């Protein structure tokens, strides 16, 4: 290869990497934009807390339906077409979520919204694995850091626009303009290669090593879901924190995770994947133990901070491991692992609730910490 060809190849690789970061940013903004709309949707539908909670399950259901088949779709049509379709659905569905008022229409819109997020999520992670492998460097944590950053931007910008007095529909249209601009900026350099698997069925059960990685991802997402769904309740009920300040727990966790991921590629470069996964899982487990053993709200927040830092780079390492395994094609492996892992966010909070009902929320958090030790013990095996 000539010097000119090498420079062109390196430039294309950089553009692919930049496009991947922007796609993760788009996914984070799109997903988080829904959060500030929740109170408005609940008021329009005039539903009780319990009924609206049931309605929200349709979002997860849509993702769980879309994720298992997305790997096959990427194999047949390439990452770019699937990301483009998912993004287009997102642009249509966000305004509908700001308009619909009947429970039935909201349920359908939420299910379609979850499916669009599922399409983008799996496709962008397949692209991220391919881009990382072609670079020969650790890049997955940084990509996921842009998703976390997108979450902060999406929720923050939506909240700001709504606070300025704009209607939910107008606020969503502003977000849509941002998403369109970001997509137009990166679309030329989203990977478009097909994997040519015409005989692959539309649904493939995970097996062997991929199933094991999926179970570990379930544990890691379960830890995230524990803070997301139960952190505020733990602070109010067990640490006597006022309800208005209970959101600090997830805020601290979220900021720590974002910073950890944005620094994660450097950490992996210096410490290696094995050490990063091992000590990250231990740090997350220690954070949960600290939160439940010391009866002090400040130490509980420190514990949530440790969970955020510790867990920040564990899931990206799992995706890299799925990209390097030989048991299943990469696109199918990532699709299967993402589906199992995402089930941890959906089913995990209910599982924690059952344990809390049987004993206490402290015991439930301790059980999650014990599961994180399983991930730590598997670190060398996963990164071999």
Could you characterize the architecture of this molecule?
The chain is mainly alpha-helical. The chain folds into two domains: 3-188, MFS general substrate transporter like domains (Growth Hormone, Chain: A); 208-382, Growth Hormone, Chain: A (Up-down Bundle). Helices cover 82% and strands 0% of the residues. The protein contains 16 helices and no strands. This is MFS transporter. The chain crosses the membrane at residues 22-40, 52-75, 82-100, 106-124, 145-163, 169-186, 207-228, 248-268, 275-294, 300-320, 332-355, 361-382. Keywords: Membrane, Transmembrane, Transmembrane helix.
Key terms for this structure?
about 375 residues, mainly alpha, Growth Hormone, Chain: A, 2 domains, 16 helices, about 80% helix, MFS transporter, MFS, membrane
* Percent helix range: over 70%
Q: How far is the N terminus from the C terminus?
A: 32 Å
Main pleated-sheet profile:
none
The residue ranges in which pLDDT falls below 50 over 5 or more consecutive positions are none
Membrane topology: Multi-pass membrane protein
Transmembrane segments: 22-40, 52-75, 82-100, 106-124, 145-163, 169-186, 207-228, 248-268, 275-294, 300-320, 332-355, 361-382
Organism: Pantoea coffeiphila
Keywords: Membrane, Transmembrane, Transmembrane helix
């Amino acid at each position: 290869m000539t010097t000119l060809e090498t420079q062109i190849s390196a430039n294309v690789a950089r553009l692919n990497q930049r496009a991947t970061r922007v796609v993760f940013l788009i996914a984070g903004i799109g997903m988080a934009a829904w959060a500030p709309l929740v109170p408005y949707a609940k008021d329009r539908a005039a539903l009780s807390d319990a009924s609206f909670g049931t309605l929200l399950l349709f979002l997860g259901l849509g993702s769980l339906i879309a994720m298992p088949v997305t790997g096959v779709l990427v194999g047949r049509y390439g990452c770019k077409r699937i990301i483009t379709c998912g993004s287009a659905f997102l642009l249509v569905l966000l305004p509908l979520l700001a308009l619909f008022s009947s429970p039935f229409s909201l349920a359908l819109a939420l299910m379609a919204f979850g499916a669009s997020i599922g399409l983008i999520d799996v496709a962008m992670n397949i692209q991220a694995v391919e881009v990382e492998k072609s670079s020969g460097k650790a890049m997955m944590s940084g990509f996921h850091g842009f998703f976390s950053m997108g979450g902060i931007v999406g929720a923050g910008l939506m909240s700001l626009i709504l606070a300025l007095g704009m209607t939910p529909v107008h606020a969503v249209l502003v977000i849509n303009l941002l998403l369109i601009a970001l997509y137009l900026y990166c679309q030329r350099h989203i990977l478009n290669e097909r994997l040519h698997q015409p005989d692959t069925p539309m649904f493939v059960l995970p097996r062997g090593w991929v199933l094991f990685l999926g179970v570990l991802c379930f544990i890691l997402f379960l830890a995230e879901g524990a803070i997301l769904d139960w952190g505020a309740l733990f602070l109010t009920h067990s640490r006597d924190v006022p309800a208005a300040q209970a959101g600090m727990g997830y805020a601290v966790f979220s900021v720590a995770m974002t910073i950890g991921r944005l620094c994660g590629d450097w950490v992996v470069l210096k410490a290696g994947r094995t050490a990063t996964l091992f000590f990250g899982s231990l740090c997350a487990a220690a954070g949960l133990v600290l939160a439940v053993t010391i009866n002090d709200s400040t130490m509980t927040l420190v514990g949530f901070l440790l969970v955020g830092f510790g867990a920040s780079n564990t899931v990206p390492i799992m995706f890299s491991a799925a990209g390097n395994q030989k048991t299943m094609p990469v696109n199918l492996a990532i699709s299967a692992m993402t589906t199992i892992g995402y089930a941890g966010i959906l089913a995990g909070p209910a599982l924690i609730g059952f344990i809390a009902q049987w004993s206490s929320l402290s015991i439930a958090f301790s059980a999650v910490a014990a599961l994180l030790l399983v991930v730590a013990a598997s670190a060398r095996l996963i990164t071999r």
